[in-house]
Amino acid sequence: MTKVKTLQVVKKGMIYAVLVLFSMFFLFPFAFMFFKSVMGNLESAGSPYVRFLPEGAWHFSNYARVFDSSFLRYFRNTLIVIAFNIVGVPLAACFVAFGFARGKFKTKNFWFAVVLGTIMLPGVVTQVPVYIMFKKFGLTGTLAPLIIPNFFGGGALNIFLARQFIRGISKEIDEAARIDGASRLRIFFGIIFPLLKPIIIYIVINTFISCWRDFDSALVFIGDTRASRQWQTLALGIYYKFLIRGTEDVYPNMQMATGVIMVLPVAALFLVFQRRLIEGVVMTGIKG
Amino acid sequence: MALLESLAKRKISRKSLFDRLGWFAFILPVVLGVLIFSLYPMVVSLYYSFFKTYTGTTDLPFWTINGFNNFGLFNYKRMFTIDSEVWQSFGITFIYAVVSVPVCLILSFLIALLLNSKVKGIGIFRVIYYLPVIIPTTINGLLWADFYDVRFGLANQLLTSVGLPAGTFFTSANTALVTFMSLNLWTLGASMILWLSALKNVPASLIESAKLDGAGAFRRLVKIIIPMCTPILFYNIITGVIGALQMFGPVMTLMGQSGAGPDNALYFFAYKIYNTAFGAWEMGYACALAWFLFLIIAALTGLAFGTNKWVYYGDGGND
Amino acid sequence: MKSFFRTLAFAVLALCVAVSFAACNTGLPQAPEQPIDIDIDKNVQADLVAVVDNDGVEKMIVEELAEEFCKEYPNVTVDVVQNADVISYIRSGEAVDLVSVIGENVSYYASQDILTPLDDYMEAQKFDESKYYSSMLELGRDSVTDKMYMMPRDYSRITCFYNKALFDKCGVAYPVDTPEDPWTWDKFVATCRALKSSPEFPSNYVPVQAAMSYDILNWGIVSSYGAESILKDDFTLADANSETYKQWQKGMLTAADMITEKYSLDSRLYKATDFENGAAAMSFAVGAASTTYKQKGIDYNVVPFPAIGDTPKTPTGTCGYAIAKNSYNKNVTWAFLNFIMSEAGQKIISEKGQLIPVLKSLAEDESSQWRKMTNGKGNAVDTAQFIKHTERDVTATWFGKLPALARNAYGGFYKKFLTSVCDGNKSFAQAHTVLKGQIEEYKSNYPEYFV
User: Fold this and answer.
1) Which of A137, B40, C108, C445 is the one with CA 20 to 30 A from C146?
2) Is the minimum CB–CB distance between B22 and chain C shorter than 8 Å?
3) What is the pLDDT of residues C83-97, one digit of tens each?
4) Does C93 sit within 8 Å of B55, measured CB to CB?
5) CATH value of A68-250 in 1.10.10.10, 3.40.190.150, 3.40.50.2300, 1.10.3720.10
6) Residue of B35, B139, B149 to mutate, interface with A, max A Cβ within 10 Å
7) Is C294 contained in some domain?
8) C304 and C290, same domain (yes or no)
9) ipTM rounded to 2 decimals
10) Which among C83, C204, C272 is the nearest to A224, CB-wise?
11) How far apart are the first and last CA of chain C?
């Protein structure tokens, strides 16, 4: 009996050892970023010797250097995009999902299939015409292209999730309201929408994270022209600042301090809402 | 029901447009969205692909497409006969998809198996393993470009300190793609999470009965667990391949201005399209390339769905 | 359901038809004809847009110039835009007036029809060319059409910067250039060797930050051996074993040896930030680099480019400004350009940008402000070294009078040639054969470019 027990202890110990080993691997980027961010200028550039841990003083002042005027502008722009999207996306997604979950009309299934089909549609195919469309309206180089499309349904996956959720809500609730003479709009906003809180939280956080890290569409629609400089978002502004323009303060410690600042909010949100976020990812993965 | 509905309708004497549309009003936003941001661009993209040039003339109403001229097939001719970059970048993208997607799937499955073991505090490890996925693209590029820097990067420092020869990483056409693929190791968490939930869905009773039948751990894995996980496998393969075919941000943030790596070793197809459209402003040619990519993705997706007999959908399929 | 599909299909079809009808044929927006007026009203109203390279110093210089210019013309504003690819920027349809152009790109930009010829303006203005370094003005001229397109901003030649702190640390003597003891290539190589073999020199450092496959630098070395152009009169490559070939080969080997000896790095390992990060002991760079070196606190000084052989050359090439073809404010832009070339403008360029003025009188005047330039540690820089041996200047003449339309393609082949030789992928003879083949094929494919 004791033999079996020790065997189990050894097995558990081994599992922990492997788990910790891998944890170090997955935490490495964060440690690397942090340590580099507090190094001196030349030290972080590997001069004269390459190090992982900073030698001597930790320069926390690097973080203050990150917050120059351009960084604050990028930050403001990202916040604007997020502010619009975290309102627009969940609202639009739930609204549409309500129609798909409760509606009775002929083309419902057809449209639902079409909406899900857009997930498979590669963004690069539509990129150029959508760009030209926005350009004709004079909206390229502004934040509008990052906001407007999201008000039209808020993304197929979000619609799908919200629809699943609404189907889980008993129909009797809205039928009772119906008898009381409430319109569909009132049923949606008065009864169903408040019940969708869990899924809305998921969508909001997910939207926040994806807007925060979005690089591709910001690159295409905002770019780097005279008019668009003032509207560059954080991810894009950092790209131009560190990778395209050279002569500014581009030591690796500054890059990594910026990185830490950009990772922190997302990491914090993720840690707080990790269960819900992972559930959402899993749900879209399994059902989609 | 129908009676109630008609009664409700009759109550409102002057029907607004919203009511007239009925339930359709609710899905109207997404219908418009699909028409404006997916269907119209798809059609127009095909149309644009027959034009030679585009210049960003802005002072015209949106429904005209001035600036495009010379209708013809030359973009397709150029793509298939003249422009050798097309095949080069397509080859790179293809190799990347074919190698990195399966490797990542296997590795993330193994990690998921590890994380599925029932020990205390396993939740913390799951979060840690997932964490690198959330690092923004731009930061990811800066981070790994610095780590893999040949002369001043930590990677070579580590290699040489244990007596291994220094690597060339992103500075040589031979190693650039492999180095780039290695970055996926840190983002295994994304598919690991999916595997994990699939593993959880495998009924414990099934495994118990297999155990009683004397099936070993490996046999249980191959005969029960993996077949039960096939929907996730299917989903991962499709999204992985489509993602690989469309990727350009990560390379750009890693390579900076050149965006294509040494001797174009990281010249991915989507970046080629981006470069054609927003670097050279040859919008017509970019649309032709994009349509080519779209046809390939459509064919691959069709193939995947056509041959998905091996995917286990449980009883009665998934909703 | 069926009727709905029919409606949908009809709508899509109608959309396509509408789009097709709307298509028509235009090119870039064309600016109206603007008669030359060199004496515009000081109260003229204009919002100029200047596109410069993606470089903080470039932007700063134009902004400083604009500030002074706008004091004279109070209703003019100048907005400076940075973009890595000027042609791409102009083709995107954005409004542009002033364009920053690198000397070697002038012909190509001119062939793309995006610049305004300046000759008429210069004539109207009675522009005195003799006041400027002629090698620089020549860079602004399209060698084929013989029209002037760009005003050189500064006198920029490749000089040899050296990091005093690193030399001290390794116990190597500073480079010097005096009539008795000229700074020659042999001495330069000996210095590199001394640095490299010093135990104090870190292994990931490099003796000199120099891009040997950078065409301008490379041409400085090659032309020192006597080559004047790598093309024959019919625009094909110089034949193997011709005199030019031998001279060219000597130059290329000199350059490639630097890399095989690990005194400088090949194009893949090369880093433009080495010298400013203190990781290179010397740097072959133009005067403009001193701003960055100063900002980053490097204790540097300069000597001229090392002399090679009996006819030493100094690689030279500048950046300047041109007027965009689709500018709506050409006269105001010319006024700005004229201001840049005036003494007041040149003073701003040399003082704020730490660049060597292209105006001779200012450059050679020892009391002028730019001559009092200091380095990152506040020590004086020997500025006389920047304008020494002006007779050695050589510009981008490797293609001779090659027509502008072919320049871009030739340039692409030539760049590949340079990297493959300097990175050690191919021998000179092999790479020469490849380049010769490429050029001949191109020439037979596009005969219309060579008329």
Assistant:
1) C445
2) no
3) 777 777 877 777 889
4) yes
5) 1.10.3720.10
6) B139
7) yes
8) yes
9) 0.88
10) C83
11) 64
